[in-house]
Amino acid sequence: MSMNEQLEQTKAGFIAKVPEMAQVNIFRHIQEQQQSGIVFGLNEGDRAPNFTLTNPLGEQITLYDQLANGPVILIFYRGGWCPFCNVQLRAYQQLLPEIQKIGGQLMAVSPQSPDNSLSQMEKEQLTFHVLCDPNGQVADSYKLLFELPAYLQNTFTGILGRDLAKFNESDRWLLPVPATYLIDRQRIIRYARVDPDFMNRTEPQEMINQLKRLD
Fold it and tell me: Using one digit for the tens of pLDDT, what is the confidence trace for 1-59?
């Protein structure tokens, strides 16, 4: 089953299980972002900002150091609490050997706390770099960061029983718009997909195809 087929199943489960009022507010926010006129994310041809982030084991990982070893698929995701993110990361993990075989690397960035990132890595058996972005500083440098409006914060805490600020060990409700980038060894973004609808993601096979097209 493809990743997109799995995402469709996850969406069907979301619609079946999540209370209607929560769904109304979540879809409202997606639509507001889509219609806001705000252009999220960097574009193909832009230079990728460098960053150094810590993995759950306390090791510091620097993007430009990784690029010295080959192009990087860089994923910004919401967190291990998001079932759509988990589907995406599992799908990429499954094709990681093929990504590595053609010289690519994989890095995933979220604002969640190191403990929650470690739990996610262990649960999903992820073997690529899963990095913690405190308060979304790197997401902000890639023009992805946003703060959840009060009505959506109330939806999460009151209906869904989840405090994202606490989950991320932050005093603000910050998330990245989900994004997938391919960055070449010259630090240039060669592929970019940014979508406020967090239920949509880029198939890993598409990123493998993009890797093969690099000069």
Answer: 899 999 999 999 999 999 999 999 999 999 999 999 888 999 999 999 999 999 998 99
Q: What's the pTM value of the predicted model, to 2 decimals? A: 0.95
Residue 12's region, left for phi above 0, alpha for psi from -120 to 50, else beta, is alpha
CB 201 within 8 A of CB 178: yes
* Spacing of C-alpha 116 from chain mean position: 15
Q: Is the pLDDT of residue 150 over 90?
A: yes
CA distances from 89 to 3, 70, 76, 177 (A): 10, 20, 10, 16
Q: Average pLDDT of 196-210?
A: 96
**pLDDT at position 126, please?**
94
Residue 88's H or E segment, with its range, is: helix 83-94
Whether residue 149 contacts residue 171, with contact meaning beta carbons closer than 8 Å, is answered with no
| Pairing status of strand 105-110 against strand 179-183 | unpaired
Q: How many angstroms separate the CA atoms of 136 and 138, rounded? A: 6
Tell whether the model's pLDDT for residue 215 goes beyond 70: no
Which run of H or of E encompasses 197? none
Report the alpha-carbon distance of residue 122 to residue 116 in Å, rounded.
10
Asked whether the beta carbons of 160 and 20 are under 8 A apart, the reply is no
